[in-house]
Amino acid sequence: MTSGSAPAMEIDREVRVGLYRRMVELRFFEKRAYDLFMEGLVKGTSHLSLGQEAVAAGFGEAMRADDYTFCTYRGHAHTLSRGTPMARVMGELLGRSNGVTGGKGGSMHLTSVEHFAMGSYAIVGAHLPIAAGAAWSAQERGSGQVAVCFFGDGATNIGAFHEALNIAAVWKLPVVFVCENNLYMEYTAIESVTAVAHPAADRAAAYGLEAIIVDGNDADAVYAIAVETLDRARQGAGPSLVEAKTYRHGGHSRADPGKYRPDQEVQEWLNRDPIDMYRERLLTGGVDDGTLTSIEEDVRAEVEAATREARQAPPPGAEALERNVWADGSATWRN
Amino acid sequence: MAELTYREAVAAGIAQEMRRDERVYLIGEDVAGAGGVFKATPGLLEEFGPRRVRDTPISEEAIIGAVMGAAMTGLRPIAEIMFSDFLATCWDLVANQIAKTHYMTDGQITLPLVIRTANGGGARFGAQHSQSVENWAMAIPGLKVVAPSNPADVIGMLAASVRDPDPVIFFEHKALYPTKGEVPDGELVDTLGTARIVREGGDATVVALAAMVPKAMAAAELLAQRGMFIEVVDLRSLVPLDTQTVLGSIAKTSRLFTVEENPRLVGWGAEVVSIAAEECFWDLDGPVVRITTPHIPLPSADALEDLAIPSVDRIVATIEKSLA
Q1: pLDDT in tens, A166-193
Q2: For B127, which of A69, B138, B216, B297 could close a Cys bridge (C-beta 3.0–4.6 Å)?
Q3: Relative orientation angle of helices A219-234 and A13-38, to the nearest 10 degrees
C-alpha cells in the first residue's frame, strides 16, 4: 500500500506556494459562499469542501491544462482549482446571468469546459463511467490527456463505481479515480455501511489496481501522488484509484449541522486543518510570512471583488429558459 | 437498388457512417466478435478493427457513460444496448446525465451520440425482453427519439442520427430484423423529425410506428377491400415530432387512429392525440381512437402475446367499427 504522507519527490518552492494560494482561494471562497447562504442569497442546496481543499488543490496544480476534471455536487473546489474565475462560480451559486452555466446548473452542476472542468455530477457515482469515456476518447485520439474523477466515499458502494473501474482497467484508460474519503456518506459513517475498512483502496485489487491511500489533508502528499498517477496514465499504464483520507469541517449540505460526528473526532481533524498545517510547513521550509500574508490579502480581495461582481450581475432573462436544450440552441421538439 | 433485411440495414448504416467519419465508434455487449445477438452488426469488426468496434462487459452504465464521456470530448460514438428493457439499468446515465447536460451547461457540452437498442415484442421473450419503451425516452427533454419501420429508413435515419449533434435513442424493432425492403444505391441520409405518408386514403388517418407500420398497412389493404380508404402515416421519429404531416392528413381525412405497441398509459399516441385535439379539433368528424397494447406487462406465451400487441385483425375491427 502506498502512503503519500512522506512524499518521495521534491516539490519546487513555486509549486508549493501555488498550492498554498489555491487552498486559500478555495477556503475563502467557500467561507463566503457559506455566508451568502446564511443571508439567503444562495437558493437550493450547497455542499462545501471546507477542510478538504488539499485534494482539489493538489490534483489541480499537478494536472496538465487540458486534462479533464469530473467532479460531484461537492464541486466548487474542483471547478475553481482548474482556474475557473471566482466571479463566475459565485454568480452561478447566486443564480445570476454571469454564472458559469448562466444559472442553469447551480451549485451542484458547475461546469467550465474552457477550463476543462467537464461538469459536476449530482447523482452519486454517475460520473465515474463518464470520466472513463473521456479517457477512452483521449486514448483513441492520442491526445495525451488524462481524466481525473473526484468522488466521495459513498460512491464506492454504487454499481457505477465498479462498472467504471472494471472497464477502465480492461481498456487501460488514462483516468485517475480519486476517492475523497471524508468518513461520512452524507449523514452516515461510511464504515458502518461498507464491508471493508478502506472503501476505495480495499476494492482496488478487484480491478487489478494498486491500493493507494494518501493523507488528503497533506497538500504535498496529494500533489506527489497526483504527479505519479497522472504520469502513469499518460504513459499508457492505465488507471489508478487513489483514496485520500480527509474530513469536511461542516455537515453534508447546507441543511446539515453534522451533529452525528463525535466532538473529539471533529476537533482532531480541525487540528489537522490542511491549510494551517501547510502554512506551518512552508514557514518551516523557509517561505517568509510576508509572502503568505500577502497571498491571503490578495485572495481576500479577490473574493470580495468576485462577490461584488456576482451580486451586481442581473438574473438570467426569460430568453434563457428555453435556450440550449438542443445543440442548435433551441428547445423545439415539433414542427 | 438492392434488397436488404432490416438487420443488414443496421450494419450497412453503421458501416456507411464509419467509413465517412473516423470519429464514429461502435461499442456494446457482443457487438464485435459475435456480430450482435440479433446479428445486426456482423462484418463491422472485420472492416473497422477492434478499436472502433469493441465488445464491452455487461455493464450498461459503463457503456453509456463511455459514449457520453467520449461524445463530449471529440468522438461520435454509437452504443448498443442489447434489449431496450436494459435501458432501465442505465437510465440515470440516459435520463439524468445525457439528456440534461447540454441544457445544464448552457450549451457548453454537446453530446453527438447514438444509443441503438432492440425494442418491442413479438419474439415470445416475456416481459423483460419485449417492451416498447420509446415513450420512456420521449418523456425526457433533451433526447431525440427515432424508430424506423423498414431497411431504407434504418440506414437513412441511422446516418442522420450519427450526424446529429444531439443524443439520439435509436429504437430498432426486433420483430422487424428479418423483414426485407428495397434500399436505394449510394449514400443514404434521411432527416430526423419527418414522418412519411406510406399509403394515401381519404377516410381516416392511421398513425403508426416501427412494427405497427406494416400491420397498419396490412389492415389498410383489408379495409380498402371493404370500401374504407385509410391513409397510413409512418411517424418514424418521436422527437422531433412531425406534427404537420399528421395534422395535414387529418385535415384531409377528418378521422384519427393511432396504432401503438406500447402499453396504454402515456404512449406516444397520447401526445399525438392531444395535439390533434388542441389544434385540429374542428377538422375531426368523430372520436379519436388509440389502438394499443393493454396496460399490462407482456406475457411470453404466443397465444397471449398475440392477444396483447395490436394485430391486423384488431386494427381492422376497431377502425371498421368506428367508421361504420
Answers
A1: 999 999 999 999 999 999 999 999 999 9
A2: B297
A3: 110
Question: Rounded to a whole number, what is the distance in Å from the CA of A43 to chain B's nearest CA?
Answer: 17
Sequence spans of domains, chain B: 2-183, 196-323
Query: A141: which chain B residues are within 8 Å (Cβ-Cβ)?
Result: 73-75
pLDDT for res A4: 46
Domain B196-323: CATH class, spelled out: alpha beta
DSSP sequence for B38-101? TS-STTHHHHHHHHHEEE--S-HHHHHHHHHHHHTTT---EEEEEEGGGGGGGHIIIIIIIHHH
**How big is chain A, counted in residues?**
335
CB burial readout B110-141, b (16+ within 10 A) else e:
bbbbbbbbbbbbbbebeeebbbbbbbbbbebe
Those of residues 169-208 in A touching chain B at CB distance below 8 A are 170
| Chain A residues inside the 8 Å CB shell of B92 | 123, 126, 160
User: Cβ of A101 under 8 Å from any chain B Cβ?
Assistant: yes
Option in A70, A159, A327 nearest B61 (CB): A159
A324 close contact with B: CB closer than 8 A = yes
Cα A264 to chain centroid, rounded: 26
CA distance B238 to B249: 17
Neighbouring CB atoms inside 10 A of B307's CB total 13
Q: Which residue of A has its CA nearest to B247?
A: A335
The series of mean pLDDT values per 10 residues for chain B, 324 residues long, is 97 98 98 97 98 98 98 98 98 98 98 98 96 98 98 98 98 98 98 98 98 98 98 98 98 98 98 98 97 98 98 98 95
Q: Is B18 on the interface with A (CB under 8 A)?
A: no
**Contact between chains at A147 and B92 (C-beta distance less than 8 A):** no
SS3 A103: coil
Q: Does B278 touch chain A (CB under 8 A)?
A: no
B275 chain-A contacts, CB cut-off 8 A: 334
Measured CA to CA, the distance from residue B192 to residue B239 in angstroms comes to: 8
- The pLDDT of residue A125 is 97
The continuous run of DSSP H or E covering B225 comes out as: helix B212-225
Q: Evaluate whether the domain defined by A2-315 bears CATH number 3.40.50.10420.
A: no
Question: Which of 3.40.50.300, 2.30.110.10, 3.40.630.30, 3.40.50.970 is the CATH number of B2-183?
Answer: 3.40.50.970
pTM of the model: 0.97
What's the gap in Å between the CA of A207 and the closest CA on chain B?
A: 13
Task: Please judge whether B108 and A333 are an interchain contact, meaning their C-beta atoms are less than 8 angstroms apart.
Answer: no
Q: Is B102 a catalytic residue?
A: no
| Peptide bond between residue B240 and the one before it cis (omega within 30 degrees of 0) | yes
Residue A238 has pLDDT above 70, yes or no: yes
Yes or no: say if B253 and B280 are a contact pair by the CB < 8 Å rule. no
Among A179, A158, A189, which residue's Cα sits nearest to residue A258?
A189
> Look-up: residue for cell 461582481?
A309
Question: Tell me, what's the pLDDT at A8?
Answer: 61
In total, the C-beta contacts within 8 angstroms joining chain A to chain B are 164
Nearest to A167 among B66, B75, B166 (CB): B66
pLDDT in tens, A134-143: 999 999 999 9
